[in-house]
Amino acid sequence: MAPPSLVIADGTLEALKWLGLFLMTIDHVNKYLFNGTCPAAFAAGRLALPIFVMVLAYNLARPNSLARGVYRRTAGRLLTFGVLATPAFLALGGLVAGAYPLNILFTLLVATVVIQLLDCDRPVAAVIAFGIGGALVEFWWPAIGLCVVVWLYARRSSWTCLVLGIVCCASLQVINGNAWALAAIPVFLIAMHWKLTMRRRRWVFQAYYPLHLMAICLIRIPMAKAGYLFL
Q: Which of 49, 74, 90, 183 has the greatest count of CB atoms below 10 A from its CB?
């Protein structure tokens, strides 16, 4: 028997995106303004990445995405706003080294490119993009792998994809230092049974990401003048 198909109402999917934005904002405020002093905010923020990844994968798995140019448009937006977010992302610091790794929009960009290559029946190129791209972006290969597996599962549910998805999500523990990312799985299972009515807001996530980083940068200026030290 195959596992249940992944079917989520459009309004519910939009609500999940807003939930991800809320959790991401809490995490970034805690990290960049309060030096990560709130463990609960950090734990809640670990759900944001898997939620964003799953929402993206589900949207890319819609019928005729390749023919309708969905991959190309999505990749273009992610690249544009990823570049716009880079100055603030670098200014806030906390990176592994210098400008490394690239921000989360580039993570989603690499995942989109890998999925497009798979949909174009170019598995070798997809593996190369996965290997190289995953080494350059936030959350590395587990995030990209999770996106690809959810896309495959949404196209055709299978136990293999389900297990691989859990493995990818659990692998984020190596990066996060905890297993809270796994909490995104029951969130999605619940979402499958809720049919919410919510209007879709295009480009909200992509535009919000650089804007909220810039806002945090501006907020830090008076805090720094008041003597607050940022780690």
A: 49
Peptide bond connecting 50 to the previous residue in cis, omega within 30 degrees of 0: no
Rounded distance between C-alpha atoms, residue 143 and residue 147, angstroms:
6
Half-sphere exposure of 216 (CA within 13 A, CB side): 27
| Residue 69 burial (C-beta neighbours within 10 Å; 0-12, 13-18, 19+) | exposed
CA 76 from centroid of its chain's CA atoms: 16
Residue 138's nearest CA partner among 168, 85, 175 is 175
CB-based contacts of 221-225 (< 8 A; 24+ apart in sequence): 223/33
Question: How many Å apart are CA 80 and CA 77, to the nearest integer?
Answer: 5
Helices and strands of the chain, counted as H and E runs? 11, 0
How far is CA 50 from each of CA 68, 179, 182, 206, rounded to the nearest angstrom? 26, 12, 8, 16
- Rounded to the nearest 10 degrees, what angle do helices 184-191 and 10-33 cross at? 150
- Give residue limits of the domains in the chain: 10-225
pLDDT digits (tens, 9 = 90+) for 49-94: 999 999 999 999 999 999 999 999 999 999 999 999 999 999 999 8
pTM over 0.85: yes
